Amino acid sequence: MADNKAKIDRVFHALGDPTRRQILERLSAGPVSVSHLATPLKITLAAVVQHLQLLEESGLVRTEKLGRVRTCRIDPAGLAVAQQWIADRRSTLEKRLDRLGDLLA
Amino acid sequence: MADNKAKIDRVFHALGDPTRRQILERLSAGPVSVSHLATPLKITLAAVVQHLQLLEESGLVRTEKLGRVRTCRIDPAGLAVAQQWIADRRSTLEKRLDRLGDLLA
DNA sequence: GCATTAGTTAAGTACATACTTAAGTATTCA
DNA sequence: TGAATACTTAAGTATGTACTTAACTAATGC
Predict the structure, then answer these.
(1) Looking at domain B4-104, does it have CATH number 3.30.1490.10?
(2) Distance, angstroms, CA B12 to C1' C6?
(3) For a Cys staple, B58 with which of A94, B10, B19, B63, CB 3.0–4.6 Å?
(4) Of B21, B32, B33, B8, whose CA–CA distance to A89 is shortest?
(5) In chain A, where are the structural domains located?
């Protein structure tokens, strides 16, 4: 639970970069190799690899290497962490508004 | 729709900083003044004001000034933008897995 | 009116980050 | 075996970012 804070930090930091979100958008359509992933992006392959490392450490992406090709795919668990944090904020928010409504009624 | 991209960029960039998320956690419990918001944080008031400017520009927070006190509260619209982006990723992800399941069945 | 409170704004600094190039390894193919 | 492919890794750079201090404005209280 307290350990979860570090995970939330990593996930939201990873999501903070537009290039990494673009990578996730691509991966939600299906798994692809690193070089295939790099093609539409206007950065070098090396830069893409660095983004992928961060995405993997944050739990947003999983990869596996077969031969010389590394295949990347979305790990739903990472997105779930972010979604949960947002849901938690909205939940306490709505509970508070409900109590406020009760008082007024 | 294409304009929405800039909004998503701003929201996720804002959420990328742990101090700003801490501010949002505080605000989800209810509206507070700037100095009240700053007290538990180990940074100067000036730094808090700078975070608040970013949070307001990104649509995550609304503020209003009465006399010399600025009251800050969460704007649910900002969180909704982030939530929607994540939901969109998971949606395309699940659709793909469904099609895969259909093929196997 | 004067001091205090609450916030603002500007300028500077130190560190983080996204990128590059370049030189490497491991795998596949002819 | 040798060339091409698919990454990998290290090192350097330039820009961003979060923060500070300091000097300011505006509202409130005595």
Answers:
(1) no
(2) 30
(3) B10
(4) B21
(5) 4-104
